[in-house]
Design goal:
- This protein is an all-alpha fold.
- It has one domain: Phosphate transport system protein phou homolog 2, domain 2 (Methane Monooxygenase Hydroxylase, Chain G, domain 1), CATH 1.20.58.
- Helix content is 83%, strand content 0%.
- The chain is built from nine helices and no strands.
- It is globular and about 55 Å long.
């Protein structure tokens, strides 16, 4: 019986969803961080950075637990490499959210008023992308009970399709925001532009990794 239990193991899907929720919680802190930057409330930025760091650490603990408890033999309900790829993308999303918080904390950068609306819209779009991924992950848990087929599978694939569209919108917003940033170079100086660019790159990376995670979900369903 011990051998059978080892071969079957504990399904990682439920834990994978819990990890996805924790990662989305990290991304959820990005908007309050940006609001604090606009308000030039650097003490709140420090508080929120610490909060993001703690949530990211909790996500790391879940990730390690998932990997340690993966069935080591044959009866894993999904491809091990694709599951680990999904987990890595999620991990990177949390890391990039934390990186964003650190960028805001290490320098009292002032965000030019002309960029407030653009950054707020971009951050909201990033949150939309992350939310679509979480919705797909939650529905994916139900698929394990129906062998990854039927209406449930179509629902997850629909979420993944929407995720790709939302990530494309994020890319477009990032390009527009980048052009607005460099128009202000003479006014705000090269150092501030550099920090704006760092902020933009970390936020863009969150959306990119969310799309990559969706691709791994699709691959697990297709197989």
């Amino acid at each position: 019986m011990a051998i059978i239990s080892d071969m079957l193991g504990k399904s990682p899907i439920g834990q994978l969803v819990e990890h996805a929720k924790k990662v989305h919680e990290c991304v959820e802190q990005v908007r309050p961080l940006l609001n604090a930057l606009i308000a030039e409330d650097y003490e709140r930025i420090r508080y929120l950075q610490d909060k993001v760091s703690k949530i990211e650490y909790e996500a790391d603990l879940l990730k390690h637990d998932i990997r340690q408890n993966l069935p080591r033999r044959y009866f894993l309900p999904v491809n091990r490499e694709e599951l680990d790829g999904f987990l890595q993308c999620q991990e990177k999303m949390a890391d990039y959210a934390e990186d964003f918080s650190v960028i805001l904390m290490i320098r009292k950068t002032k965000l030019h008023p002309n960029l407030h609306e653009g950054f707020l819209g971009f951050v909201d779009q990033i949150f939309q992308v992350s939310g679509n991924l979480l919705a797909a992950a939650v529905e994916f848990r139900s698929l394990a009970e129906v062998s990854f087929r039927g209406a449930e599978a179509r629902m997850v694939l629909g979420h993944i399709e929407t995720l790709g569209e939302e990530e494309w919108k994020a890319d477009r917003l990032a390009r527009e925001l980048s052009m607005q940033m460099y128009k202000l170079e003479d006014e705000v100086g090269a150092i501030s532009i550099m920090f704006y660019e760092k902020m933009l790159l970390k936020l863009s990376a969150i959306a990119n990794e969310a799309e990559n995670a969706g691709d791994y979900l699709r691959a697990m369903i297709d197989k």
